[in-house]
């Protein structure tokens, strides 16, 4: 009896504990933190990260590897360690709430508070701040200095040249005072070079651009000039001997572009435009300076450039690693406008041509890029020999082996651009060019899939989607080797009417000795010359995929002298982990595998220490510190301890069989205090296949297009997310075949309230929901975001963000029709909800925005006005000037409130809100939201 009493009290205590937990509400979204910008020091002893609460100010935290706080600061952004980890640098933003109030008071943008640069020395614990910093830079591979531009308001009076004669000095009293030179976009800002060890600093005035060399201790900058001692021009400051060299001097109206050092700092390149007139074809000149030389040398100008080309101000300047070549851009002359025409004399007409490679809407969006287009060109610095690599015939150029390679890879997509309108493929022709001679050799034609260079540029390699084959091309011999023809290195689960894609590549072994490729589960090593291969892992038997983790972002090869780290993922139970592989004996061991989603570790540069995250539906992905054995783990961040105060939820896998006989998997989210003897309302939410994300954490947030799983679970809903398999030509029917049996299988378990099931989805999910409600009344309410209601009219639409035709989507990709409307008219009609809209009995909430660049918003309008015509209960939300989903926080919050009120009304019998009863009249838009609930009457 006593034992029964104790058990009863324990159950009562647990029940009371759950009952006392809070239920998530919209206001709680703002209290949830996100961990961002994780950094680990080169020695692995210090971790730095930002904590951002909702859309409030970020908070910087610096901790040691035991998780102990060393330093913190509010309003921090963009934190970085110097290479030696002695110093942490970040910017301090003005308070966001203060900025809002100033904007509310109509304070002009240029009068708003500016960013502050913050410098914290971890060795001395000293901290300093510099106000009004416009930008800052630190050396990439050496330490001790920082350079920053100051947005000062102070004016600097221009000094007179000492050579001015007495007549000039004795100016009449009524003559206007000499203008004071001010800092700004045109004149430049003051550049401060600060020694982080001594805090000593030098200032260079009126600087418009500056750059550190990657490896050499050199700083280059451009100034519009200060006085007779410091003229306008380009300067190089040597930080080893403190010597300032004016490498190029010109008038203060000269424009400079593409200032860049070689890695060592021994070479500097830039483009200068010395012409002060408004001529439309700018006479750009290319300059090169070598350390030890007093002045920069002009390499190219309009007179010496190749015929029909000019030096580009947009083409990047960079040097080969061995510093024997300078690469820059040559451009065609711009199209010159007639500037004498008045607006009323200019013809504004778009001429669209049926056989031009790019659709006019694509051209229109790419006008700026077309105007900036340039072609990569090399100059051999030993003899100033110019070799043009890219051209109109082959506009794209890949430079290999850090610029040292003998050959460059050229490509041209233009012959296949027209057909890409309906195929969706980006096929290209490829050639190689000898960087020494300029000789071009064609090697591949109409390859659907990108071709790249191996790290040492011995091979071109790629995956051709047409025959699902990886291949290599020996650039010296031009020999083509098919590596995977007839083998399963393509997407085994492809269910779209398009050639399957590859699983990708892990990388190359040093000296281009072999390439590592992925199949669905395993990693294979291939000889690029003869195609022989060996399997390195054995994942297929257990349905575990292995993927290489790049721990050194600068690595060009996989190092066979070190052990490799792989990620693992089990398709059956969705567990992930880390696997250590020894390339010397081709053996490995599982280091960790668990019911979490593990991130890619971030490794310390000089040690084996790492930071990573692990997450599940319950566990937020906080930062964890360990080493590459992952045996001892220390939790560094604790972003959301408040989660324990709320009724949360659990996630599990569920299985059922589709109407087509396919075994399917999905996710079921249950409230934390789930009781199988009760019946719960359920919302179905899906998009393609999602069950691999079982262990993804879903923090409560005002999502832009989907329900918040933790939010609805906390409020007593079940959420069901089913995977969908597709049959080509029948996407709507496929969704029905997969989703509805999944729903009924859960109803049979006894805990789903079959009379209160909703469905929600966006874009492709929104379309499928629009289709489903024409075929079933199982759903009591539905939210359909950015749906396609009419596949015939949508087929002829434009994706306005890219200018692309939507044809390829229906013929070959996600919409999966498999052909044109004139080839398969019945498929287009059968899959379009608009033709069966009279069958809908489910109340619908539709969200489609007028700036949608993915799905034309008239699709949502077609859907809504047809429902309205039939008197079907429906509501339409259009967030003005928002894209495919609402991005602005106020709109996201509004959408989430309305969606929750909509589902609560239909699935929980909650009172109807005012906006559902009478709408929000246009005259009240932005004033009255109509959230108030209408009291029910008995």
UniProtKB/TrEMBL annotation:
Residues 1-19 form the signal peptide. Residues 161-180 are annotated as: Disordered. One of its GO terms (molecular function) is hydrolase activity. It is an enzyme of class 3 (hydrolase). The keyword Repeat does not apply. It holds the Pfam family Peptidase_S9. Residues 739-909 form the Peptidase S9 prolyl oligopeptidase catalytic domain. Its EC number is 3.4.-.-. InterPro entries: AB_hydrolase_fold (IPR029058), Peptidase_S9_cat (IPR001375). The keyword Hydrolase applies. Keywords: Hydrolase, Signal. It comes from the Bacteria. This is Alpha/beta hydrolase family protein. It comes from Lutibacter litoralis.
